[in-house]
Amino acid sequence: MNDKGHDRLSGKVAIITGAGSGIGEATARTFAREGAKVVLVGRREAPLQANASAIRAAGGEALVIAGDVARAADVAAIIEGAIEKFGRLDYVFNNAGIQGKGAPIIEMEEESFDELIAINLKGPWLMTRAALRVMIPAGRGGAIVNTSSFLSVAATVGTSVYSASKAGLDAMILALALEAGPHGIRINNVNPGVIDTPMLRAHGEAIIPPLAARAALGRVGIPQDIADAVLWLCTDEASFITGQSLLIDGGFTIPGPR
């Protein structure tokens, strides 16, 4: 165990999707430092293996399962692989998502709509369904967290489908929290603002300073900001919190003149 950890998740098992970079990478390492055995999931195996190697080098335990969360067969294999390797499942962080093609609706193709909804909304639904089918009979409680977005409650030109996919997550967890709550399982979302990830930097370095200037805290977020919130939502410190979408944006969406 890494000496920087506090063992808050000792003996627990967590599946983290989109774990090869950005928020998922940071969260996997954070959970491992806290004693959890982590299952790293994503469509590209190479970055998952790199993250798993770093976790193992720090004394943690990690399993890599490449798969597409929008495919029910892949989701079943992910859950089965986690149980086969570690014997239990306590947490799921549904973080895998895509930004898709940001374009006005008149320029978007139907295929772009289908892909965004499949990965960003159907994927977490499939993962949650499969996880609950294991977690509920186990009777140990647990927590599920999804990555939503500040764009579920805000918008910019070209985000009609992306925003819809994330707003769908915010609505979905209300019913899921009611269904899972009697079994001691909590379901929440984190809604990141502008976070310094490869997805953001794909737009170019010049985009970052003006975005940072808009935030009340004067900076963009880093993946660890979100990882720490996900960790907290999975610990007993958040034991009375469920069905909530936690906006983590440094004050970016506060209305009014700047």
TrEMBL record:
Is Secreted set as a keyword in this record? no
Which UniProt keyword terms apply here? NAD, Oxidoreductase
Where does the record place the Ketoreductase domain? 12-193
CDD domains tied to this protein: SDR_c
The superkingdom of the source organism is Bacteria
Q: Which InterPro entries match?
A: KR_dom, NAD(P)-bd_dom_sf, Sc_DH/Rdtase_CS, SDR_fam
The record's section on Gene3D superfamilies has:
NAD(P)-binding Rossmann-like Domain
Question: Which family would the database say this protein is a member of?
Answer: Belongs to the short-chain dehydrogenases/reductases (SDR) family.
Q: What is this protein called?
A: SDR family oxidoreductase
What is the organism field in this record? Cedecea colo
